[in-house]
Amino acid sequence: MHADKNRELAALTRWRRDLHRIPELDDDLPETLAYLRAELEGLPCELLEPCPGALCAWFDLGRRSSVAIRADMDALPVSERTGAPYASQRPGRMHACGHDGHMAMALAAATWVGEVVDGRASGVSARDLPRNVLVVFQPAEETTGGAARVCGSGVFERAAAERVFGFHLWPELPAGTLASRPGALLARSSEVTVGFSGRASHIARWREGRDALVAAARFVPAAEAACARLAEGSGEPCLLRFGRLEAGTVRNAIAAGARAEGSLRVFSDEMFERAREALEELAGSAAGAEGCAAELSLSEGYPPVVNDAELFARAEAALPGLERVAEPLLIAEDFSFYQRRLPGVFLLLGTGTHVPLHADAFDFDERVLLAGLDAYRRLLLMP
Question: What global pTM score does this model have?
Answer without folding.
Answer: 0.92
